[in-house]
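Reading a protein record of the kind used here takes only a little practice. An example makes this concrete, so a full record is given next.
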Amino acid sequence: MFKKLTGRSQNISDKHPSLPVPGSSKEPAAIGSSENVTTKQNVSWRKSCCNYLYDRENNLFCDRSGKSWFYIIVYSIMYLIFLSTYTLIFLFGSLSLIKFLDDFQTIDKVELLTYSTQGIGLSATPTSLNSLPVIWYRNDPEDYAKYVDAVGDVLNKRKKREIRNITDLGPCGSSPYGYGHSPCIILRINKQLKWSVKPMNADIAKKLNAPKMVQEWMKMEQKLWLHCDGIHSYDKEHLGKLTYYPDPPGFDPNLFPLTKSTDSPLIAVQISDFTFGISLALECKLWHHEGVSTIEFMLYVTPKKIDHL
């Protein structure tokens, strides 16, 4: 029976030439055939990449139509808007909760310029120019120009505002501020709102072994007296002469506490007749009822031309 069916199938294939016979068909190879694989291998990778980026036959970009890409972009924009809105709502709710639970107060920018009650903060210009308490330059206008600009910025800002605490700084009040034979250092008390201090009395000055000049100034007037000198005996020997503007150098305690529109007065210290080519360590102390506040800095000036022996 099976032999008869087999014979019929062979006869049918002979009678119907439209049915393909293995090895005799002249049509192109079917999908998955060896001929199709060889044609794919012959296509270069550059052409494959170009076809992937843009298929001209099907008008596709990266295997997606323009309509599909439009939907993707719209979805991405809506998702980002939703995510941003959710984040802002979450932050607003968190800050509102903190403000409700705690005694939250806004901090004024001026109140950030404060110091602890244990001591008074002093600032010296231009010692903080390089974030180090050092004034180091060669006796050449091009070399110390940065220090002249730093002092000028401090004084010009005060001139633009109407400040009633302007003091006479003498030669330290105009450019080049003594640089480079007799440089000037501008000192001031850092601003702190609602802060006041009392002058130091003579008894406390004696206990703290205050300099004789400071004790003499205390007999003249009740102020916050400033005194500068070399730290070591070696520095004092080569320091030369110190001149204060105003002289004697004192801060009026009646000017404190300061307000947002007022600034601390300035005191200038001019250093002259010091030894060139030697690093000098200086300290300035402010004597007041709460104790002594100190600021230290280094001064190093070299001649413009050094003659080699």
Remarks:
- The longest strand covers residues 291-302.
- DSSP finds eight helices and eleven strands in the chain.
